[in-house]
Amino acid sequence: MAFESLSGRLQNVFSKLRGKGKVSEEDVNEAMREVRLALLEADVNFKVVKDFVSKVKEKSIGKEVMNSFTPGMVIIDIVNKELTELMGGSQAKLAKSNKPPTVIMMAGLQGAGKTTTSAKLAKLLQKGNHRPLLVAADIYRPAAIKQLQVLGEQIKAPVFSLGDQTSPVEIARQAVQHAKDNGLDYVIIDTAGRLHIDEELMEELKQIHSVVSPDEVLLVVDAMTGQDAVNVADSFNKQLALTGVVLTKLDGDSRGGAALSVKAVTGCPIKFAALGEKIDALEPFHPERMASRILG
Ligand code: GDP
């Protein structure tokens, strides 16, 4: 599971603090040195680490905290709150259009989990009594269309496809119309990914964006790739104005750097977390729950 090593290290630091009746400024400094190292080793962006540690220090070193009955616990609580803030504070909800359908564009590099996540999101929406339409607009990756169709069948969600000879922009346009005509209230567009970000990919995404005016542009990133995921998110965001990020593969042994840095670096909230290959392994992302999980 993700965060295991970070979690273990932070718990170590804090069990030392918790054991102390009185906490000195030097104790706090020592604990923060260890927290800093643990975060860096978890592949958290170094600037994010620096800001984080200085905020926690500022709040921890002071009469009120140090003279409290349980200074160790108070400091752990400060860290918990700052970790939650770092990941966005409160849960960032999926947008809902006043004029259905709500259009969601899924973007990301190939292999990040975009197609699977599109279907998982459809399933999640179905559970909330919505009627999502999946749209096969990744016409370049062999088998992407078929993959979406198979997933659609599995969850009994309609899949809109015009094969691989029509442009993705046209597919997206017609799909939104199809949803309107058929009373489907969410449209999830699975766009093409590439191995690397390139101009052609961005151009196509921008065109789809301008034609369908999505309510959400969700970037799917692989949490296992750490700071690379954050860099990818930063580049996409500069070109496409993302509304949120989906972190996938959090069931793997990701060190956690992407989850802890992406909001601070890009300003984009993490809206969902994917924790497995199964179709129902997608959850709304709760910063406070994730922080508590990390701190154990
Ligand atoms: P795309 O190229 O971005 O559309 O990626 P796919 O949706 O085809 O996913 C690539 C691979 O990652 C597939 O084998 C998925 O089953 C796998 N995958 C996607 N999300 C997760 C996840 O949260 N956890 C795990 N373990 N695997 C995932």
From TrEMBL:
Recorded superkingdom: Bacteria
EC id: 3.6.5.4
One Gene Ontology term from the biological process aspect of the record: SRP-dependent cotranslational protein targeting to membrane
CC per GO annotation: signal recognition particle
Subcellular location, record wording: Cytoplasm
Cytoplasm in keyword set: yes
Record keyword Transcription present: no
Enzyme class: hydrolase
Residue ranges of domain Signal recognition particle SRP54 helical bundle in the record: 2-87
Amino-acid positions noted as binding GTP in the UniProt annotation, renumbered to this chain: 108-115, 190-194, 248-251
Similarity-based family: Belongs to the GTP-binding SRP family. SRP54 subfamily.
Subunit structure: Part of the signal recognition particle protein translocation system, which is composed of SRP and FtsY.
Biological role: Involved in targeting and insertion of nascent membrane proteins into the cytoplasmic membrane. Binds to the hydrophobic signal sequence of the ribosome-nascent chain (RNC) as it emerges from the ribosomes. The SRP-RNC complex is then targeted to the cytoplasmic membrane where it interacts with the SRP receptor FtsY.
Protein's recorded name: Signal recognition particle protein
